[in-house]
């Protein structure tokens, strides 16, 4: 376990007792940003930042499950990330593979169900095989859904859904006049998964970066200057506490 922690962590904590346990977000999505910055601050290669980020995944998954979050979606690798250096991409794929092999037993015993959002066909075979095995092993688990957005892009997802709908209209499986929001949602990677209540982005950036574009229509957003490897249980609780203070009206008036 990497233990090089430095500086942007706020001291003030939010305890579980301070949270309204009847108002825990059903679905939290996280843009895991800041691995590279974390490494740069420590004069380490970017690969070390990604390795430290994996440790944070372990921590946040456990805390989310403990708090009663039912769906946790992690933006793991976007369709645009293929433009990164080959060595970095290779490191990320190996880390996914290593994580699944080392953590699958605990994930399964913790009643976590793994889902993949995105096009797995472009992933390296070893990584794809490990993912498919983990999906099969955990398919009946019910405590929390861990959704990894891999080779995922919001625009790509909508284009894919449009093509599938057009194909089914052509094959007389659906009628054009019957298409509504519910129809479109059935063709998205997130079919069967509720829209995120809360989207968290660490690292100081404040943009959506092509993540869950359809699904985030009424999500609450929470930003933090903390880089992902420094993101801890207390930061998740702070985000949830802030969420619990929001007035969610979904375009309506109470």
Automatic annotation (TrEMBL):
Record-level GO BP terms: polyprenol biosynthetic process
Name of the protein described by the UniProt record: Isoprenyl transferase
Lineage: Bacteria, Bacillati, Bacillota, Clostridia, Eubacteriales
Family membership noted in the UniProt record: Belongs to the UPP synthase family.
MF (Gene Ontology): ditrans,polycis-undecaprenyl-diphosphate synthase [(2E,6E)-farnesyl-diphosphate specific] activity; magnesium ion binding; manganese ion binding
Principal EC category: transferase
Signal peptide extent: none
Keyword Transferase appears in the UniProt entry: yes
The entry's keywords: Magnesium, Metal-binding, Transferase
Cofactor requirement: Mg(2+)
Known function: Catalyzes the condensation of isopentenyl diphosphate (IPP) with allylic pyrophosphates generating different type of terpenoids.
Subunit comment: Homodimer.
Origin superkingdom: Bacteria
Free-text comment on the cofactor: Binds 2 magnesium ions per subunit.
EC number: 2.5.1.-
Active site positions, chain numbering: 33, 81
One GO CC term on file: cytosol
Pfam family, one: Prenyltransf
Binding-site residues, substrate: 34-38, 46, 50, 78-80, 82, 84, 201, 207-209
Sequence positions that bind Mg(2+): 33, 220
SUPFAM superfamilies attached to this UniProt entry: Undecaprenyl diphosphate synthase
InterPro entries per record: UPP_synth-like, UPP_synth-like_CS, UPP_synth-like_sf
Keyword Metal-binding assigned: yes
């Amino acid at each position: 376990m990497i233990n090089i922690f430095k500086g942007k962590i706020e001291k003030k904590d939010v305890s579980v007792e301070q949270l309204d346990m009847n108002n825990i977000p059903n679905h939290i999505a996280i843009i895991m940003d800041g691995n590279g910055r974390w490494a740069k601050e420590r004069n380490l290669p970017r690969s070390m930042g990604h390795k430290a980020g994996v440790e944070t995944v372990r921590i946040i998954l456990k805390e989310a499950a403990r708090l009663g979050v039912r769906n946790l979606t992690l933006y793991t690798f976007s369709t645009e990330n293929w433009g990164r250096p080959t060595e970095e991409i290779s490191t990320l794929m190996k880390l996914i593979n290593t994580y699944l092999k080392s953590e699958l037993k605990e994930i399964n015993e913790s009643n976590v169900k793994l889902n993949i959002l995105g096009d797995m066909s472009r992933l390296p075979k070893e990584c794809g095989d490990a993912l498919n095995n983990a999906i099969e092993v955990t398919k009946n688990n019910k405590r929390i859904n861990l959704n990894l957005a891999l080779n995922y892009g919001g625009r790509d997802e909508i284009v894919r859904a449009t093509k599938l709908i057009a194909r089914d209209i052509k094959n007389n499986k659906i009628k054009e006049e019957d298409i509504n929001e519910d129809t479109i949602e059935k063709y998205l990677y997130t079919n069967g998964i509720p829209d995120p209540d809360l989207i968290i982005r660490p690292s100081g950036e404040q943009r959506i970066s092509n993540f869950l574009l359809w699904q985030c229509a009424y999500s609450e957003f929470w930003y933090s200057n903390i880089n992902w490897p420094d993101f801890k249980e207390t930061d998740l609780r702070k985000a949830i506490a802030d969420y619990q203070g929001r007035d969610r009206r979904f375009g309506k008036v109470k």
